[in-house]
Design a protein that fits this description.
By secondary structure, the chain is α+β, with helices and mostly antiparallel strands. It has a domain of about 110 residues: Electron Transport, Fmn-binding Protein, Chain A (Pnp Oxidase, Chain A), CATH 2.30.110.10. The protein is built from four helices and nine strands. Strands 1, 2, 3, 4, 5, 6, 7, 8 and 9 form a nine-stranded antiparallel beta sheet that branches. A hairpin with a 5-residue loop joins strand 2 and strand 3. The longest helix has 11 residues.
Length: about 160
């Protein structure tokens, strides 16, 4: 059952997306859904490396400059970030608040948080919970060229 928490990231979610514990979160994948030209959801898997909460109301995301996610965000401006892990389940509904910033092969968007939905098991679901989130490997080295470029684009 979901409940709206409003148009701001709650403190634990803002902290998780702050990159303060980035090494501990590498290897986890987060679906980011945009809307394609036919009105269908278009999923993209991103990592905590590609996301940065700059405040409770703004998340920066870096995507490929030639990607469908970039085209979709530029054209329709909406996205939903899914965070489904053992300790939290949230759906963060966002809107691109400005045109993307091009940084080499990357495009950085500022996403304004419009609604945060928290999902929890209903009483009749008898304590059902997420037991594992999406993961990937190998985990990127933070000193790799790609990681350095991504982190730099988020912090411009």
């Amino acid at each position: 059952m979901t409940r709206s928490l409003g148009a701001a990231l709650p403190p634990p979610l803002e902290a998780r997306l702050s990159q303060r514990d980035l090494p501990g979160l590498l290897g986890r994948a987060l679906p980011l859904l945009t809307v394609d030209e036919w009105g269908r959801p278009h999923p993209m898997l991103c990592s905590y490396l590609e996301l940065l909460a700059v405040s409770a109301s703004c998340i920066r995301v870096v995507v490929g400059a030639r990607s469908s996610a970039r085209r979709n965000l530029e054209a329709r401006g909406v996205a939903t970030l899914l965070m489904a892990e053992p300790d939290l389940t949230f759906y963060v509904k966002c809107r691109a608040s400005s045109p993307p910033v091009a940084v080499g092969e990357l495009a950085r968007f500022e996403l304004a948080v419009e609604d945060v939905l928290e999902d929890a098991a209903a009483e009749y679901e008898q304590g059902a919970r997420i037991t594992s989130g999406l993961t990937y490997g190998p985990v990127p080295a933070l000193d790799s060229e790609w990681a350095r470029a991504t982190l730099a684009a988020l912090r411009l």
